[in-house]
């Protein structure tokens, strides 16, 4: 996330203010080298799943999801964080790894269920009919700051305005008349002093509803450059992929139920056979 020092902005998030935030950490390829590198952010949406961007997860790498993180340089926080390995990731079938990615979304499946606590809780998904155009919503993360070219160590928050698809298309028309912006992309704008930057990929954009609750409207996918504060940045439009998200999670839940049912039947058969032999 970009912050201009001259503006005096110090938008640090409070500890546990955004309990759905997840740090996606790339583990070393070497078993005995404890290399922990934060490559992206994610959003907790289910005890077994984290939503993040497809382009940040490579099949040849090992990843860890860290929950309850706030200060990257400290482990002595009020409540302990939880680290769970990512067992595998499921990429949206329409994902295209282009200069401007399309359907840049993936579900990271955890090796075990996360335990909800005071500072670790999921963020609600929107419905496919929700509209967020014109709203100023909150994005959080540990992205780079252009003033120092270093990654933020304490989670930051900033407000971004969701602009219309047509307005965003007009901007790209000035760069390339033949470029057509995918409907899976949501464009946002910051102010003259703040915007998204490197390592912000997967960062959730949470919009507040009238009842005060928050919902996941988008997540950072790309930007044209940290220093281009006048240019919109691209987010995954979650309303365009929420059907796939729900269907994928439901399929997993049904598979687990079926597996447990079959396992219970097999155990029952073994017990019956044992009783018969004893008789």
TrEMBL record:
<dbReference type="GO" id="GO:0004252">
    <property type="term" value="F:serine-type endopeptidase activity"/>
</dbReference>
<dbReference type="InterPro" id="IPR001314">
    <property type="entry name" value="Peptidase_S1A"/>
</dbReference>
<dbReference type="InterPro" id="IPR043504">
    <property type="entry name" value="Peptidase_S1_PA_chymotrypsin"/>
</dbReference>
<keyword id="KW-0732">Signal</keyword>
<keyword id="KW-0964">Secreted</keyword>
<dbReference type="GO" id="GO:0005576">
    <property type="term" value="C:extracellular region"/>
</dbReference>
<comment type="similarity">
    <text>Belongs to the peptidase S1 family. CLIP subfamily.</text>
</comment>
<dbReference type="GO" id="GO:0045087">
    <property type="term" value="P:innate immune response"/>
</dbReference>
<dbReference type="InterPro" id="IPR001254">
    <property type="entry name" value="Trypsin_dom"/>
</dbReference>
<keyword id="KW-0325">Glycoprotein</keyword>
<dbReference type="InterPro" id="IPR051487">
    <property type="entry name" value="Ser/Thr_Proteases_Immune/Dev"/>
</dbReference>
<keyword id="KW-1015">Disulfide bond</keyword>
<protein>
    <recommendedName>
        <fullName>Peptidase S1 domain-containing protein</fullName>
    </recommendedName>
</protein>
<dbReference type="Pfam" id="PF00089">
    <property type="entry name" value="Trypsin"/>
</dbReference>
<dbReference type="InterPro" id="IPR009003">
    <property type="entry name" value="Peptidase_S1_PA"/>
</dbReference>
<keyword id="KW-0391">Immunity</keyword>
<dbReference type="GO" id="GO:0006508">
    <property type="term" value="P:proteolysis"/>
</dbReference>
<keyword id="KW-0399">Innate immunity</keyword>
<feature type="domain" description="Peptidase S1">
    <location>
        <begin position="1"/>
        <end position="250"/>
    </location>
</feature>
């Amino acid at each position: 996330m970009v912050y201009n020092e001259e503006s005096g902005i110090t938008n640090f998030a409070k500890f546990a203010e955004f309990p759905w935030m997840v740090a996606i950490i790339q583990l070393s390829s070497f078993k005995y080298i404890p290399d922990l590198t934060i490559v992206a952010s994610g959003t907790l949406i289910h005890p077994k799943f984290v939503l993040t961007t497809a382009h940040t997860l490579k099949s040849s790498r090992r990843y860890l999801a860290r929950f309850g993180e706030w200060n990257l340089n400290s482990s002595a926080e009020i409540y302990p964080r939880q680290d769970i390995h990512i067992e595998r990731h499921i990429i949206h079938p329409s994902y295209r790894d282009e200069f401007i990615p399309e359907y840049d979304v993936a579900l990271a499946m955890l090796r075990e269920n996360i335990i909800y606590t005071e500072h670790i809780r999921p963020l609600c998904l929107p419905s496919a009919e929700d509209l967020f155009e014109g709203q100023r919503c909150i994005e959080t993360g540990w992205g780079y700051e252009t003033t120092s070219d270093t990654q933020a160590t304490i989670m930051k928050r900033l407000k971004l305005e969701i602009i219309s698809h047509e307005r965003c298309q007009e901007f790209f028309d000035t760069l390339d008349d033949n470029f057509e912006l995918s409907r899976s992309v949501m464009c946002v704008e910051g102010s003259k002093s703040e915007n998204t930057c490197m390592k912000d990929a997967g960062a959730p954009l949470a919009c507040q509803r009238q009842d005060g609750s928050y919902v996941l409207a988008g997540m950072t996918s790309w930007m044209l450059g940290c220093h281009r504060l006048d240019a919109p940045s691209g987010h995954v439009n979650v309303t365009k992929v929420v059907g796939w998200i729900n269907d994928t999670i439901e399929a997993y839940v049904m598979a687990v139920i079926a597996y447990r049912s079959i396992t219970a039947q097999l155990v029952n058969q073994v017990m019956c056979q044992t009783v018969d032999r004893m008789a």
